[in-house]
Specification:
The protein is mainly α and about 300 residues long. The protein has a single domain, classed as ABC transporter involved in vitamin B12 uptake, BtuC, CATH 1.10.3470. Strands 1-2 form a two-stranded antiparallel ribbon. Helix 1 runs parallel beside helix 5, helix 3 runs antiparallel to helix 8 and helix 9 packs parallel to helix 11.
Length: about 300
């Protein structure tokens, strides 16, 4: 392993982790706040990227393109929510159906499987060519989003969404419209995922119809790693969201380390699955070990 190459790759991993941290926050809203397994993510990320890139290629301001991507992502979450709450389709299936449909929609938006956008011709917000600037801008995006979400989930509407995820039966007994809250949560979540996709498309200089494939695994990895490592330290809601961003950064740093060790890029999906499975199993295995120790002492 080349230590110098590894050190040089860490800033890039940090900037990439910050951008994907927004996706991790979006997944956190459904996975932890709503207790909802949403598979829309793999499609809505590509939707955000496609909308942003095509808008900028059409001459739109990059910030307005991000806003348009955010709205497009929220629309995908709205569709998933409609399928689940109005048509009664199970949560995981509604996300899968939306994800499948988004592949064709994303192809329509892009016109082909991928579209490139050069930093030499367009004023991109973040770019792989300027990593220090990308780190600062991405960090600012994460801080602003976390601050907005912290405020929102402290409002009456935000508390009702959290109540829906914690105990839907009790929430309904208190007169809360749980179906509406699920739709709102899915809308916010996929909006953030699409925003992450739009930023990442600018960062890498292209949008691809397959770029969101496996995104849900990376989002879950960021969440699980953050909970295992920072769970006992961060109890505040805003800090939990920030911990997800840190988990995303750590994930991409581990990926950089693994690539330096010689792992093929085609094996990264398998590695991601192993990382998620390991961190998911960690609390359970820790509990079993502690129980065995108690039995031995008794």
């Amino acid at each position: 392993m080349n230590i110098v190459s590894l050190i040089k790759s860490l800033p890039g991993a940090c900037s990439q982790g910050l951008i994907w941290g927004l996706l991790g926050i979006g997944v956190y809203i459904t996975f932890r706040v709503l207790d909802y397994s949403d598979m829309t993510v793999d499609g809505s990320m590509a939707t955000g990227a496609a909308v942003a890139v095509m808008a900028m290629l059409g001459g739109m301001n990059p910030y307005l393109a991000l806003l348009l991507a955010l709205i497009a992502g929220m629309a995908t979450g709205l569709i998933t929510g409609f399928l689940h709450t109005v048509l009664g389709i199970p949560a995981i299936l509604s996300g899968i159906l939306t994800q499948i449909g988004l592949y064709s929609i994303n192809m329509r938006i892009l016109g082909k499987s991928n579209q490139a956008i050069s930093v030499d011709k367009y004023d991109l917000i973040v770019s792989l060519r300027y990593i220090p600037s990308a780190i600062i801008v991405s960090l600012l995006f994460c801080i602003v989003i976390i601050a907005i979400l912290y405020w929102f989930f402290g409002t009456e509407v935000g508390h009702s969404i959290r109540a829906t995820g914690n105990n839907p039966n009790m929430a309904r007994a208190q007169g809360i419209n749980t179906n509406l809250n699920k739709v709102m949560g899915l809308t916010i979540s996929n909006g953030l995922v699409a925003l992450s996709g739009a930023l990442y498309a600018q960062y890498q200089g292209s949008a691809d119809v397959n770029m969101g494939r496996g995104a849900i695994v990376i989002g879950l990895a960021a969440i699980i790693m953050s909970e295992v490592i920072f769970g006992r330290i961060f109890h505040n809601f805003a800090l939990k969201l920030f911990a997800v961003v840190l988990g995303s950064i750590l994930y991409f740093m581990i990926i950089s380390l693994v690539l330096q060790l010689g792992l093929s890029t085609t094996d990264l999906k398998l590695f991601s699955a192993i990382v998620v499975a390991t961190f998911l199993a960690f609390p359970y295995l820790k509990k079993i070990i502690s129980e065995k120790r108690v039995r031995r002492t008794n």
